[in-house]
Amino acid sequence: MTRTESRPESTPTLRWEDAFSPAGRRLSSSAIREILKITQAPDVISFAGGLPAPELFPMDAIRQAASSVLDRYGPAALQYSTTEGHLPLREWIAARVNIPPANVQIMTGSQQGLDLLGKVLIGEGDVVLVEAPTYLGALQSFAPYGPRYLQMQTDEGGIDLDALEEQLKTTRAKLLYCVPNFQNPTGRTLSLERRRRLVELTARHGVIVLEDDPYGSLRFTGEEIPSLYELALEACGGPDGSHVVYSGSFSKVLVPGLRDAWVQAALSLVRKLVQAKQGADLHTPTFNQMIIAELVHDVMPAQIGRVKAVYGARAQTMMAEMKAHFPAGVTHTVPQGGMFLWVTVPEGLDTTPLLERAVARKVAFVPGAPFYALGGGENTMRLSFSSANDGQIARGIRALGETLHEALA
């Protein structure tokens, strides 16, 4: 008897694109991260990435803090820990606004905070109000959860509250996301009057406010202004009655690589964030949190002063060079702090294809269009002054000015 060997039927090739979930299909690459790939040549002066100045990192203090943490905590510094975060660090954060540490959740970078807040707050089709322009990392974080974005009108003072009030009369919004201090990407700051009105207006309409404040400590001109969160606490009397959620970070005032940030919010929301974080990474690295806790009392205040002085001087240098070298009709914001300023060029000039021409002159920026949730901003760009020295700023702005003169000729 002859044994006949049967050939296996051909197996269909799996198309991974068809396997992605609706949330997976909504994921996209960061426009800035993709832009940075073309600006990595060592001779390109980059005003593109929002990078803290590495020469200002407190290396010796971090080295000493790491050693102190290992001496004090031993193996516990390298062990699994609680999801909520290192208690001494949460206590320090909470004391700044006189809330219980239970209302503070430590995050692995503020970007994780945005992602987890999106996960627990945003449902398919929920209306999310964002500034025009807004931080594109927030758009990237929220997008998988299926929001319906509406852009809030803005002017030189930030969110236009008259326009927002009219919008809320006809729109049932779930969440309002904003960066009130030295906004990314524009560098604008929301005034105290507008902040008070924003808190009152959103409370009246039942809109959750997510206040993203990674740059708030980096003010180099003007007077300090209370956060939206502080104003909400003042109005409602305690954290559990506040409709404002606050996101803070140590990345811009100490170092970004330790990836330490936090969210402070009503206890019911914090508890839900704990559950979401357990599914994401269990907890922020224990050792990193302990190092930060060693630095916040003595090192961080001096570090903030140093960073503010340097960034303030670099911002002034950049604006002076722009005045000298940019064509007539090109305008920019005047930041009171932070790391960015916003440039508007004449209508009809698209800054996205302009980037390639600028890179040919060894200077880079971020085109403005990706910062708009619903399109627009083609004639804008973001410049960061934080990580370039005065000489680089002078050469880079001169080259960018030549690029603009050529494009507008």
TrEMBL record:
Stretches assigned to the Aminotransferase class I/classII large domain: 58-400
Keyword Amino-acid biosynthesis: no
GO biological process, one term: alpha-amino acid metabolic process
Pfam family membership, one: Aminotran_1_2
Keywords, in A-Z order: Aminotransferase, Pyridoxal phosphate, Transferase
Cofactor field: pyridoxal 5'-phosphate
One MF annotation (Gene Ontology) recorded for this entry: transaminase activity
InterPro entries referenced in this protein's UniProt entry, alphabetically: Aminotransferase_I/II_large, Class-I_PLP-dep_aminotransf, PyrdxlP-dep_Trfase, PyrdxlP-dep_Trfase_major, PyrdxlP-dep_Trfase_small
Subunit structure: Homodimer.
Family membership: Belongs to the class-I pyridoxal-phosphate-dependent aminotransferase family.
Protein name: 2-aminoadipate aminotransferase
